[in-house]
Structure formats: C-alpha cells, structure tokens
Amino acid sequence: MPALTVRDLTVRFAGLTALDGIGFTVEPGTVHAVIGPNGAGKSTCFNVLSGLYRAASGSVRFGDRELTSLAPHEIAGLGIARTFQNLALSAELSVADNLMLGRYRMTRTGFWSAGLRLRRGRREELRHRERVREIAEFTGVAERLAEPAGSLPYGGRKRVELARALCAEPSLLMLDEPVAGMNATERLEMAELIVAVRAGLGISVLLVEHDMGLVMRLADEITVLDFGRTIAAGPPRDVQRDPAVLRAYLGEETP
Ligand SMILES: Nc1ncnc2c1ncn2[C@@H]1O[C@H](COP(=O)(O)OP(=O)(O)O)[C@@H](O)[C@H]1O
Ligand SMILES: [Mg+2]
C-alpha cells in the first residue's frame, strides 16, 4: 500500500495564498489528520489532493505517482476515495443504488447500460450487489439498503457517503469533516466506524476535521494548519499541548 507524500504545496486564489508550502506524509495503514481553525486551508488541501484544485507549486505523490497534474477520476482510479464536507448523495436513489454508483471504478462490462441484458453483465452486477451488502453491513446501513438515501437521518446519510467511498475499494480514504453537523452520539458512532475502517480494512485515512477532540482520539499523526501554514505537526499528545495550536484555536472564538 503506497504512502501519500505532500511536499511544499502552495495554492493561490486571486490575491490569497490559501496554502503556503505545506507538507506531510500519510503512512500506509495510519490515520493522519489535518486540522485547523476555519479558513486554515483544510478543504483547499483536500481539493488539491483529489484533483479539483490545481497547485501553484509543490508535489503530491501517492507511491511513485505524481497527482498534481491528474484529473479527479484518474486520482480515484489509483485507489484514493473521498467524501465531501456537504453530502453528495442522490437523495431519490436507494441506498443500494448510491453504493452501486461507488462500484463504478470496479466495473468491467458496464452493466448499467447494454451489459445489463447479457449474462456476463448480470453475473457481474450480482457480484457487486453482494459486495455492496457486505460494505453496508460493515458501515451499519444494511437495514436501509432499499430506502431512498434522502429518507435517512443526517448521521445515516453521512455513513452512506462513507460506505459509497469504501465501495471503490480504496487504499486511501479521504474524509472532509466527517462529523460536522452531528450530535454527540452520531459523532461517537462515526469515530468508531473510522477506527473500524483502519483496523478492519487496513485502509489509510486522511482526516480533515475541525473537531480537535475527535482527532485527538483517532489520529496517529496530526498536521495543524493556520492561515495556510503548518503551525504544528506530530502525534496527538504533542500537538495537543503545543502553544501555537492552542493560540490558533483560542483565537477563533475572539471576534
Ligand atoms: N475556490 C476558492 N476561491 C477563492 N478562495 C477560496 C476558495 N476556496 C477557498 N478559498 C479561501 O481559501 C482559504 C482557505 O479556505 P478553506 O480551504 O475552505 O479552509 P478550511 O477548510 O480550513 O475552513 C479561505 O480564506 C477561503 O476563503
Ligand atoms: Mg473546510
């Protein structure tokens, strides 16, 4: 399983440097968190890594592949799956069909079109439906497979989104604020699920999150951004008591 290595990454929007030479490595099979106050550059970092934004300079390598010039579908094709900060499910489609869309990278015969009528296409579809059920069970949404995704409560929809990302069989999963907008119970359940993904599936996780408490419990390594710069990095126990980190988070509450 490849490591993800970010080096000297700089991203500019007209007049604003959103990321200013940041760097970190997500070691295989670990949870690496990128945290920081609002506006720190977390989502920008995420969007560069998934190919939606272009870097002004710097590099992002996944194993020996350079990602900064690739399109989102090419990055996904290398085994990097992501969720979005705002839900990106099809509300009218069933949970099962949303998860089947997540299998797209794995399909051979294109069973959503003409392949559906061929025996080979049907066999392949059945195989994918079985795997979708397994992933739904793992993520705790199996009971709702037949229901429209939009009918699930917020926490459930976030689980479905994570399940859909897992359906691509990624080796690296990127989660953008997976517990944003959740109540305490939903937060705990999501944290347990992320632990299970790493422990049970051996997938590396890059977690972009505002909630420092959650990150302290989940992450092996943490990179802290503020105004596009790395202000601290290391294991949770070091980052937690770093004066620069405390200042950045305290500063947030000050108007
Ligand atoms: N598409 C964009 N165009 C212009 N400015 C942007 C864009 N995306 C983000 N920014 C700016 O970049 C900075 C970092 O934003 P963002 O990465 O969303 O922070 P975070 O996710 O840490 O809250 C902010 O000042 C934000 O306004
Ligand atoms: Mg953000």
What this model shows, in words?
The chain has 255 residues and is of the alpha/beta class. The protein has two domains: 1-79 and 170-255, Rossmann fold; 91-168, no CATH class. 38% of the residues lie in helices and 24% in strands. It has nine helices and ten strands. It has a six-stranded mixed beta sheet, sandwiched between helices. Strands 2-1-4-5 form a four-stranded antiparallel beta sheet, covered by helices on one side. The chain is globular, with a radius of gyration of 19 Å. The chain binds adenosine-5'-diphosphate and magnesium ion. Magnesium ion is lined by residues 42-43, 85. Residues 42-43, 85 line the site of magnesium ion.
Oligomer: single chain
**Helix/strand order:** EEEHEEHEHHHEHEHEEHH
| Largest sheet: spatial strand order | 6-7-8-3-9-10
Terminal Cα separation, in Å?
44 Å
Q: CATH-wise, what's the superfamily of the largest domain?
A: P-loop containing nucleotide triphosphate hydrolases
Stretches where pLDDT is under 50 for at least 5 consecutive residues are none
CATH topology of the largest domain: Rossmann fold
Main sheet specs: 6 strands, mixed
**Overall mean pLDDT score?**
90
Which hetero compounds are present in the coordinates?
adenosine-5'-diphosphate, magnesium ion
Proportion of beta-strand residues: 15-25%
What share of residues is helical?
A: 25-40%
Indicate the radius of gyration in whole angstroms. 19 Å
**Count of alpha and pi helical runs:** 9
CATH uppermost class of the largest domain: Alpha Beta
Tell me, what's the shape? globular
Q: Please give the CATH architecture of the largest domain.
A: 3-Layer(aba) Sandwich
| Count of strand segments | 10
- The helix/strand class is alpha/beta
